[in-house]
Specification:
6 helices, about 15% strand
Length: about 110
Amino acid sequence: LSNSICSILNGKEKLTVDSNFVIELIRTASDQKQKLCLFVKKCTESTYDESFVNTGLNLLGGDYANIALQKGNSSKLTLTNEHKILAEYLERNNFISKQFEEDGMIIINLKNIE
């Protein structure tokens, strides 16, 4: 059910649900792509909320959680439209120090390095 709700919300022009509902969908859905799309959509349509960003990235797991935890020097994400939007959003809101593209990847430098 959570995957279906994510899919429906991702198809809407504008999200009208609150952040807690999005977090619960990310927590319970199994389709990683749908969860990522919903998270990115909510981030870019809402006022920056560091708590929401941290929680969402941690729930997405893997490299996303490493970004939230500022674990290591950098993280790499495959170059996709969603990742590009997310990386630009994180950099614009000073959640990461910088991001750039290299060899089909987005390199995200975490704040613990310059």
